[in-house]
UniProtKB/TrEMBL annotation:
This is Glycosyltransferase RgtA/B/C/D-like domain-containing protein. The chain crosses the membrane at residues 6-24, 85-111, 117-140, 180-209, 221-239, 284-305, 312-334. It comes from Phytohabitans rumicis. Keywords: Membrane, Transmembrane, Transmembrane helix.
Amino acid sequence: MRQKCWGAAAVLAATATAMIWTYASTHQIFPDSQWYLIYTYHYLGYDKAHGEQIVLDYVRDHGTFKPYDYLWASKPFTLSYRPRVLLPLLSIPFVALFGPGGIVVVPGLAFVAAMLLIYRFATVHATVPAAAAASVLAVLSPLVAKWCVGGLTDSLALLLHTAMLLLLPWRKPATPRTVAALAAVTFLVGTARVITPYTVATVAAVWCWAIWRERERWRSWTAAAAGAAAGVVAGAVWSKLLSAPLSSRDHFFSMTEGRARTLGQALPWYREAVPTALSKEATVVLSSWPLVLLLVLSLVACVTARRTVVPWLVGSAWAGATGIFLIAPFMTMFRYELPMLPALVVAVSVLVDQAVKGLVRQPEPVPE
């Protein structure tokens, strides 16, 4: 227990340092933050025009980016932002106290909590020192902290995604309470940020692994997977209802600037957009050596720990990233890939343990 506390303290210190450095070196109000702020002021009781004016004045005064004059009134963007009510709701007291800049408080707190949960999840599969080392490596990349401590919903989605992974029956059988908690957490993910490809791929992959490797516990894993699936469905229904009368098709048409409404129009657009976006994304990711190291070591672990759950976790993380990329094939500087972190950290933790065991293994005695 004492060792776990020291590991958690190391992860907390590294995360806090990354967060403070990011706050001090960059402005954390992004274009997307405008919509979350408008909703927060709406929940605080401000009328639409007043709330918009407060946000526009704040953006112009601080010079964070060119203000989007259409803001909340732009219907195509309403589909993306209306269902994400969790951040505006949780930000109410902080925006009321600190003004528009208070929108960054909840994401920062969620980032710290998410990294501690990622560390905790890694200790389920590896030793405390290995889990702590892999978690610290994850926060060394400026790309991770950049998106997690700004006025965005990504750290909340990462926190909830990791909580879902921890609630799965790795060591203890699923109970009605944990099944209900899984449903609630996966539903809340849909109110923070739509990362459905990650959730579905992860739950499906670990369920398949459990059916194959832990057949005696298949009922427990199936119940847990069913609870998570119920939450995903409820979250999808919630998003659709809240986004009405707009549809995903309308959003995709807007995202492609009117060039792809049908499948026939979408395929040429994909052929043009995907290679450019992949090239730009790879260039940015390769510029961060801690992130590259984390990715490479996780792939190595898929080979060295192929008989464990590691390749299933990492494979499902890549499947989720691919799904998100197909929905929005743009360079995001690892922002859309953030939900991969729990799987990557676990994989690297297991690999570190394997390396340590190989180094300290005693040679077999030579027979006389």
